[in-house]
Amino acid sequence: MSAAQFAIDATGLRKRFGNTVAVDSVDLAVDHGTVYGFLGPNGAGKTTTMRMLTTLTRPSAGEARIVGAPVTDRDAVRDSIGYLPEDPPVFDELTGREQLTYFARLRDIPTPEADRRIDAWLERFDLAGDAGKRIEEYSKGMRQKIGLVQALLHEPDVCFLDEPTSGLDPRAARTVMNAIAEMADEGRTIFLSTHILSVVEELADAVGVLADGRIVTEGAPETLTRQVESDSDPTLEDVFLAVTTDHGAAVQWR
Ligand SMILES: Nc1ncnc2c1ncn2[C@@H]1O[C@H](COP(=O)(O)OP(=O)(O)OP(=O)(O)O)[C@@H](O)[C@H]1O
């Protein structure tokens, strides 16, 4: 593990598309070996932030580092990160196994080790029997599983996961959640963006809520829920509603 203080750190991160400020000024300091839940309404700027942190979009201003390496230096960051985007990049004409083998080559994983990891993941995700089918024949959930495996195959220090349980049946979603918890136990860092708050409630050590391109609240889930007034036991949903709307909310921020 690197000597960098944080797995992810960002200062004043900003992205403008023409007249649209997608990400305004985001500061982050995510500890090694933790799960960071990244929440926010549709259009808040979560994907754009993740694309900047994974070197896919260049920031308009500000800085970010992954395990100490600047995100503007793709070669320095590449091996440390894995990214599951909302629509995983897969080739319809390849089989599931071919897709993963192709990705393993791109990541320079030696073949025997790649085969071992691919077999283990396919087994874990109940995909072993379909590994020889072309991806065009896969269901949404099967594609999602392939996308997730290819994000994790090189065992990166920092994983960015956009809706990792989207489209998955409850058993597969549970497998993914267990895998995320295991990765954090191994010292990896997971930056988890999802609208499924129960997933964040279960897994996240810290939560940041983005609205209009800015982090409007951040902290441990139990710290955030303590700050919200609700008739029943406050949840992250109450926190989300309180900090992302200033009118009509059933809950109030203390
Ligand atoms: N390539 C682009 N060109 C122009 N505007 C963009 C581009 N990408 C994103 N935006 C805009 O930036 C803002 C933030 O979008 P982004 O996709 O980051 O939000 P999000 O929080 O991931 O939303 P969702 O939860 O719906 O996935 C939106 O207003 C969006 O229209």
Description:
The protein has a domain at 90-154. It is globular, with a radius of gyration of 19 Å. By secondary structure, it is α/β, with parallel strands linked by helices. Helices cover 35% and strands 25% of the residues. The longest helix is centred in the C-terminal third of the chain and has 16 residues, at 170-185. The strands form three sheets. It has a six-stranded mixed β-sheet with strand order 6-7-8-3-9-10, sandwiched between helices. The structure holds adenosine-5'-triphosphate.
Distinctive features:
12 strands; 4-stranded antiparallel sheet; alpha/beta; binds adenosine-5'-triphosphate; 6-stranded mixed sheet; ATP binding; 9 helices; 254 residues; globular; single chain
Biggest sheet layout: 6 strands, mixed
Overall radius of gyration: 19 Å
**Given the C-alpha coordinates, what overall shape results?**
globular
**Multimer state:** single chain
Share of β-strand residues: 25-35%
Structural class: alpha/beta
Overall mean pLDDT: 92
**Ligands bound here?**
adenosine-5'-triphosphate
Measured between the Cα atoms of the first and last residue, the distance is 39 Å
Main-sheet strand order equals: 6-7-8-3-9-10
Report helical residue fraction: 25-40%
The tally of helices reads 9
Low-confidence runs:
247-251
Q: Count the strands?
A: 12
Series of secondary-structure elements, N-terminal to C-terminal: EEEHEEHEHHHEHEHEEHEHE
Concise synopsis of the structure shown:
By secondary structure, the chain is α/β, with parallel strands linked by helices.
